[in-house]
Amino acid sequence: MADDLLSQLKTMTTVVADTGDLEAIRRFEPTDATTNPSLILQAAQQEARRARLAEIARHATDIDDALDAVAVEIGSEVSALIPGYVSTEVSARLSFDTDATLARARSLIERYARHGVGPERILIKVAATWEGIRAARILEREGIHTNLTLLFSFAQARACADAGVTLVSPFVGRILDWHKANEPDADFSGDNDPGVKSVKRIYEHFKGHGYDTIVMGASFRNAGEIIALAGCDRLTISPKLLEELSDTHGRLARRLTALDAETAAPEPQDEAEFRWEMNEDAMATEKLAEGIRKFMADQRKLEALLGELRKS
């Protein structure tokens, strides 16, 4: 058996590429791939894509149409390189609008179908707001799989599991960022990392209560966080950290193990309980809002790029 850490990780965790870079996907051979507005922007800025993007932009009915067409085109290219899911995000602008999220998600699935990619291959990414989780509940019942992103709190995780979402993406690195900024003298190394602790708590809760929702750690700042979560259902990893794991040799120990469910699931949260728990969690409230703003900032840059190409 290969002794590099990436090969060992693949034996216990489904590895997901956190990129739209086709060459990186070919090199590291992940099972799944995730995209978001920031990653789509990076892919769209590649010179080799300019002519095709200009064609898409000119034929689109409006900028929203162009945005989704670009996301689905890149997602379809990615789907041809991997055996598993491709995650494609609903506009962050719709994070607090359940009905608009539903309409956009259904439209993305229809676009993928026109590219020959079935709904079983797609995860629709939605921000884990109360409105986004409500939309995900409905989509799952329609057979559309969802990935609830920008997840920073146990309250969000519980609500997602109650809704029956396919997958949640707790953000490890951004949780660490907040705690380091607010507690600069604290030791957050190894198992003290608050982002690692958050994923472990969610994983143990889901497995202990028999939820089917997949836990996928995301937003890693260093390889140590990944090593500390070896055995998690899925981990979505940037090309830089995939390369580091591939180049590092040694024994990788499984850190998370799914046990049989021991107790029945607790009563689902209602909206008031969810909002109160989020209000009590300053980190989760701040990072969720910040994450939505950051995704929108990159989406606006992509909108501007496509707007220029429409005129070219």
Overall description:
The chain has a single domain, classed as TIM Barrel (Alpha-Beta Barrel), CATH 3.20.20.70. α2 links the parallel β1 and β2. It has helices at 5-10, 22-28, 37-44, 50-59, 63-79, 98-114, 130-141, 154-163, 172-182, 194-208, 223-228, 239-247, 271-280, 282-311; strands at residues 14-18, 32-34, 86-89, 122-127, 146-151, 167-170, 214-217, 234-237. α5 crosses α14 (282-311), α7 (130-141) packs parallel to α8 (154-163) and α8 packs parallel to α10 (194-208). It has an 8-stranded parallel barrel with strand order 1-2-3-4-5-6-7-8, surrounded by 8 helices. With 312 residues, it is of the alpha/beta class. The active site is at 125 (schiff-base intermediate with substrate).
Q: Count helical runs.
A: 14
Mean pLDDT: 94
Rg, alpha carbons: 19 Å
CATH architecture: Alpha-Beta Barrel
N- to C-terminal separation? 53 Å
Major beta-sheet overview? 8 strands, parallel, barrel
In the CATH hierarchy, the third-tier topology is known as TIM Barrel
CATH superfamily: Aldolase class I
- SSE string: HEHEHHHEHEHEHEHHEHEHHH
Note the beta-strand portion. Answer: 5-15%
Amount of helix = 40-55%
Taking strands numbered 1, 2, ... along the chain, how are they ordered across the largest sheet? 1-2-3-4-5-6-7-8
Determine and state the CATH class: Alpha Beta
**Inertia-based shape:** globular
Counting DSSP E segments of at least 2 residues, the number of strands comes to: 8
Structural class: alpha/beta
Number of domains: 1
Task: List low-confidence stretches.
Answer: none
